[in-house]
Amino acid sequence: MTASSEYRDFVRQIVEDDLASGKWGGRVHTRFPPEPNGYLHIGHAKSICLNFGIAKEYGGKCNLRFDDTNPEKEDVEYVDSIMEDVRWLGFDWEDRLFYASDYFEQLYQWAELLIRREKAYVCSLSLEEIRSGRGTPSEPGTDSPWRSRSVDENLDLFRRMRAGEFPEGAHVLRARIDMAHKHMLLRDPIMYRIRYAEHHRTGNKWCIYPTYDYTHGQSDSLEQITHSICTLEFENHRPLYDWYCEALGIHHPQQIEFNRLNLTYTMMSKRRLLLLVQEGFVSGWDDPRMPTICGLRRRGYTPESIRAFVAYVGVTKNNATMDMVVLENHLREDLNRNAARRMAVLNPLKVVITNYPEDQCDELDAINNPENPAAGSRKVPFSRELFIEQEDFMEDPPKKFFRLGPGREVRLRWAYFITCTEVIKDSSGKIVEIRCTYDPATKGGDAPDGRKVKATLHWVSARHTVKADVRLYDHLFVREDPDEVADPALDWKSNLNPASLQVVTGAMLEPSLASAVVGDRFQFERLGYFCVDRETTADRLVFNRSVTLKDAWAKEQAKG
Ligand code: ATP
Ligand code: MG
């Protein structure tokens, strides 16, 4: 149990109050109930951390349950990915993996029970007629002409629906509640519809499928869930959740709603994320620009950083949009502590050290992570020909540019001070090489005479480099809110960022990176945090930039 002085969100407060009052006999049992119709996203991570986290903190249990009542949209590919993602986030459902489809027979039997109790009836109106008969929030609905069918007739029709005697849309099973109920969802809601669709688990066994509302609470009940935690949009479903449990007289968990996670510059709708995949705007569900768990993983996010972010965000009753920078900062914090520093040059400019002998090579000591002494150090080779970043040199530098220019001295990280003596251009006037001298007395990066330089550049030794392709990312959408469009004729897709991916081919890396394997994370000094992509092969390293060192806003502030 958590220490009594700690802040508790309202969900944990409810759980603690229930433990104190003995409401559930000291039990805490939650579940994470994804529908396997897409990959999980960062919003789901919030729900996962909340449900599994509460179970862990209060000595309870959390189930993984696939809410698979919609055969047309669901697939085992999604089931598998969801299990992988929950595990990767660090949670374990032990032997409690469930599927709502496992309860289809029980749900059917309960439906017959409700018919016998005159709390359900077969309605033969069309879906359109049902919808229009429901009324509006200010006007009551009208009773279906089929509302007073006898129990026997209802049982007969319902059994024949199951047996496949009717076409889709001919009948539905509805709960008999109240067509004037103040909650629209309780105006005789649909419990079952006819669908001749193959289900990824039950195959063609069923041609009637229960609705979400008729399934969810009963599944919770069957699993003896105590706290059924879901997002705020289900608040108006709660009276129905309660009604089914009461009408059936079964274990009745408490539904508790919390705010969804939303992030700027992206979106959390599985339907839209699927569109991005299907229409080729991204390379797949795990494209590193996607807000999916697998996309974030491929981008270089750690489970720790996502859990820390979710804990920071907290749970409330107010829907709000979190700034993407907050997520990125949690990754920066984690990687700053845990990722080894390396040197890499994305846009190489050749530097020749004219007073350094051609056949010589220094092995210089470079610290792996100043934040973590245990990470030790490595050797980086220094030789006559080096690469620095093109943007670290200017022939005619403006006032605020402190890096290399003609006649200037700068420090090469872990190496020496160098001074630029000559600029070599091709016939078009493009700078192709610069010549420098180095000061052997500054080995390691400090001058014995105490003289200072204004810049420290990263670099690599030309003949020792490892080449790589490096992918740099920007936001998936150009607007904080992708739904905000200037012209009503446009939709959210018009806000997709055409510059969200930039591929740098032929980046030059220090030789120690030759042994990097898929998933390894590094800080490339001055460039950001990078992760080895799964498309890396024996002869081609591919890196994704996970995040820059500072966010763009902070950079602007620092510039003053
Ligand atoms: P989508 O609208 O993207 O299809 P969903 O809510 O329908 O998402 P489910 O598979 O039903 O997706 O979600 C499983 C669980 O995750 C639910 O309890 C749901 O409330 C929760 N969840 C989904 N999206 C978010 C989010 N953005 N923030 C927090 N929890 C979420
Ligand atoms: Mg859902």
Alpha carbon gap, first and last residue: 47 Å
CATH homologous superfamily label of the largest domain: HUPs
Q: What would CATH call the class of the largest domain?
A: Alpha Beta
Count of beta strands: 27
In the CATH scheme, what's the topology name of the largest domain? Rossmann fold
Ligands, deduplicated: adenosine-5'-triphosphate, magnesium ion
Concise overview:
The chain has 560 residues and is α/β, with parallel strands linked by helices. The chain contains 13 helices and 27 strands.
Notes on the structure:
The chain has 560 residues and is of the alpha/beta class. It has two domains: 5-261, HUPs (Rossmann fold, 3-Layer(aba) Sandwich); 340-465 and 510-558, Ribosomal Protein L25, Chain P (Beta Barrel). The chain contains 13 helices and 27 strands. The chain has helices at 10-21, 42-57, 76-88, 104-116, 127-132, 151-162, 212-222, 238-248, 270-278, 293-299, 303-313, 324-338, 552-559, and strands at 29-32, 61-66, 97-99, 120-123, 172-175, 190-194, 208-210, 227-231, 254-258, 261-263, 320-322, 340-342, 344-345, 348-353, 362-367, 377-382, 385-389, 409-412, 417-425, 431-439, 456-457, 460-461, 466-473, 501-509, 521-524, 528-532, 541-547. Helix 7 crosses helix 8 (238-248). The structure holds adenosine-5'-triphosphate (ATP) and magnesium ion. Adenosine-5'-triphosphate binds next to helix 2 and strand 8.
